[in-house]
Structures are given as C-alpha cells and as structure tokens.
Amino acid sequence: MNVVTRFAPSPTGYVHVGSQRTALYNYIFARQQKGKFILRIEDTDQNRYVEGAVENLLSSLEQLGIEFDAGPGKEDGKGPYFQSERNEIYSREVKKLMDDGKAYRCFCSEKRLDTLRKEQMEEQIPTGYDGKCRSIKREVSDERAKTEKFVIRLKTPREGICEFEDIVRGEVKIAWFQIDDQVLVKSDGFPTYHLANVVDDHYMEVTHVIRGEEWLPSVPKHLFLYECFGWDAPQMAHLPLLLNPDRSKLSKRQGDVAVEDYLKKGYTPEALNNFLALMGWNPGGKSEIYTMDELIKAFDINKITKAGAVFDVQKLDWMNGQYIKNMEVERYLNEARKWLGDLEVNEDKLDTALMAVKTSLTTFKEIPSKIAVFTGDPVEPDLEGTEMLEFESTKEVFEAYVEKITALDELKSDDFKNIMKEIQTEMGVKGKYLWMPIRVGLTGAVHGPELGYIVEYLGKEENIKRINHWIN
C-alpha cells in the first residue's frame, strides 16, 4: 500500500501548536513509509476565513521544515489544494446521494432549529435534528427548492452501533442515536467539513487520517458517507489532546499556543519539532534530542498514547537551549545577529560577545540582555558582588592581574586563563576568591557569560581601567 497522509487546516488565524503536531505526525509517518504528504486548505466556511492565515500557515510549515507533496490532480506541485476551488466535485457527489435517497433537503428555519434545541435541552435528551424533512418526497423537495432556502442532510442510521478500529484508541463504539442527520451542504451552497473531508480524502487517495481526538465523534458520519458512496475508508488515528500543566485543554488563556509566537520568542524550529513529536509519543531509550531524520526513522504510529500530553514549557526551554548550545558556529552567529535589535555593539568584537553567551541561552530572544555586559559600562555590584570585592585577598589579586596584563601586547582569552593560573600558583588564592572578584570588577555582576570571552572583548586597556577603578 502506498501511504498517503494529509494535513487539512482551516484558514482561521494562527497555527496552533496542536495543529503543528498533527502536521508533524502526518509528515514523518508519510516520509517513513516512503509515501506522500498532502496539504489541503479547508476554506469552505467563508465566515471564518481570516485574511493572511494561509500565508502564515505556509510560512510556519516552511520554517519548521515540513514539505508537502503533489497529490492526484496536483502533479505540478504548485501549492496546496483549496477546497473552495473544488465545489463542482462536491456538488456532483452530493447529487448522487440525493438520487440514491441517502440525503435530503431540509427546509427548517434557524428559528425552528433553535427552538428544537432548547426543548431538547430542557427535556435533558440528546440535542440534534429530529428528521422533520426526511419524509418530504423528492418531487416536492425539488419544487420547494426553487423558492425556499435549504440545506442538504445525510440520512444517518437511527438504530444500532457504529464500531470501528482506531490506531490510537483501539476499538471504538458509538451508538447511532447519538449521531445527527449531519448537514452536508449549507444554505450558501458550500459543502460542510464532513462532506468535503470524505470526498477529498477519497479522490486524493488518502490512506491514513491522523488528526486530533476532537474529531473522534465525527467518525461515524464519515464512515457512513464512505459506505454510501461505496468507497473504502482510510485508517484512522486520533491524537491525544495537548494539555496545560493543570491538565485543562491547552488554550491561549494560559499562555502562547501559536507556532509563530514561539518562533518570535527565539525557539528553534528543530527544538519545536522535537518537543512536539514527543507530546504523545515516545520512542523509548534515554535520548530526548532527535533530528528530523531520526524522528522519521524512529516513529511508530502504533505507540502514540491515548492520554493527553502536558505542554511543559520548561522542558521546551531546556530542549531549545540544547539545540542552541550544539548549533554549528556559523549558523549560530548568523541567527544570533538577527536578534540584536537596536543594540549598539562593537562590530569587530561582536562574534566574541555572541559566542560568550551561546551555552547559556534558552532562546535567541535573550541575546540582548545576555550580551548587555559587552555593550556598556559595568553595572554597580549588588550586595553579593560587593562582598566579593571585600575579600581580604582581592586587592592583591587585582594588582597582580593588572601587572601581568600590562606586560602583554594584547589580551586574548587563552592569555587570561594562563594569567589566572599564574596568580593562583603564586598567591595560593583559588576558587571564588580568585575568579569572582575579577568577574565583579569587570562586569559588576556575580554571574554571566564565560569570563574569558568578556576579558577578550573588553581588551587590555579596558580591563586595566575597570580593575584600577576598584584598586583605587
């Protein structure tokens, strides 16, 4: 079987990290199986369309390295499918259902449907359409359609149970009485998600539908549509929810949920992919860092968990820090420069400053604050820093340091390390009594980037000036 998966978002705004995980799972499974990954924009609901959403979606996928393939009818590979361009296909297929008596026109007004729903809620019975228009004869329906607004509904079974096998959930049973006579075509002539979804998956030869668990209740409607059309249904895999730390559904009320928000905060695409891939699936073993190729090789669709996965930002921070720490130097420097903003820096020594903070970064957005020590005068030390300057040996350490670097033509990181070893040997001062006073004397801070980089960046004269300030 040639595996075909698809990612089918609606252009309603930003790309949710849960949607990104869905795209990722579809992508890596298709690549693992040497199959195709198709992108389909489900834009039939014109009321929910958000300007720029498609461009944002394509940009997010591109930045995260997720490439889609050309499916049937898209052999040129020029962009995704758009459902709004395929209405002729849906109209043709729904006509078949009407002609076979498997779908019908419903002329009920919104007012009647609202009243029906309220009555059902008051009686504490399942809400849904009561089938009032099911029995209207076709010729009467055709005549009324000339002057009245209508939708087209599917005649779903009234009795029995729909049973199906889900790759993640296992055997699932849903009673048919819980399933509404689903609207297939809206009053504006556009298909609903349910009709377009099934028709497109069939004609695009989709073999595996991998999507969020919120779509699980819709499966009976879709399976019944496949049966009505006489088509084979794809395999289904419904992914667990992403959760907040309090195990509520991940929402914007409790933090960022958009892919673009995390990219704008300086998270790397690789870390975001790595993190999301492990939200609901674990390859086993001790490693938690995986390249895209490693994810593709290790992925096992049968090991996706049912339980919701907690979106742990602290874990993402750690993972992102690992990616930055191990990033190839040239790429790191190119990326880091994009985050300087209006910061005034010494261009000749900028690389030294950026390398100094490389191993301490959580995200690239921290760069301006992290390299602040290189871009201005030292801050006044706090109480802890002042205590470092008042060690009994500090003045002698400072004087020895100034004497030794004065003798040098220029001051490099390796020179600094050698000088500090000499002072340690000659004076018997080591540990925090040696290193901390020098750091505070140069930067005003107790903690910060690797000291050797700071010393080299400041240069010989600035080192002497700052340390002499405290000696005096």
Oligomerization state of this entry? single chain
Radius of gyration using CA atoms only: 32 Å
Number of helices: 20
In what order do the strands lie side by side in the largest sheet?
A: 1-2-3
β content, as a range?
5-15%
Shape: elongated
Give the termini separation. Answer: 80 Å
Strand element count: 12
- The CATH topology assignment of the domain at 377-471 is Arc Repressor Mutant, subunit A
Mean pLDDT: 91
Task: Label the structural class.
Answer: mainly alpha
Give start-end ranges of low-pLDDT stretches: none
The CATH class label of the domain at 377-471 is Mainly Alpha
What would CATH call the architecture of the domain at 377-471? Orthogonal Bundle
Q: Helicity, in percent?
A: 40-55%
Main sheet overview = 3 strands, parallel
Descriptive keywords:
elongated; 472 residues; 3-stranded antiparallel beta sheet; 20 helices; mainly alpha; Arc Repressor Mutant, subunit A; 3-stranded parallel beta sheet; 12 strands
What does this structure look like?
With 472 residues, this protein is mainly alpha-helical. It has a domain at 377-471: Arc Repressor Mutant, subunit A, CATH 1.10.10. The protein has 20 helices and twelve strands. It has helices spanning 17-32, 53-63, 87-99, 110-122, 138-144, 193-203, 219-229, 259-264, 269-277, 292-298, 313-325, 329-337, 350-357, 367-370, 372-375, 383-389, 394-406, 413-427, 432-443, 451-471, and strands at 4-7, 36-41, 81-82, 103-106, 151-154, 161-166, 170-175, 183-185, 208-212, 235-239, 242-243, 309-310. The strands form five sheets. A three-stranded parallel sheet has the order 1-2-3. The chain has a three-stranded antiparallel sheet with strand order 4-5-8. Helix 13 packs across helix 20 (451-471). It is elongated, with a radius of gyration of 32 Å. The mean pLDDT is 91.
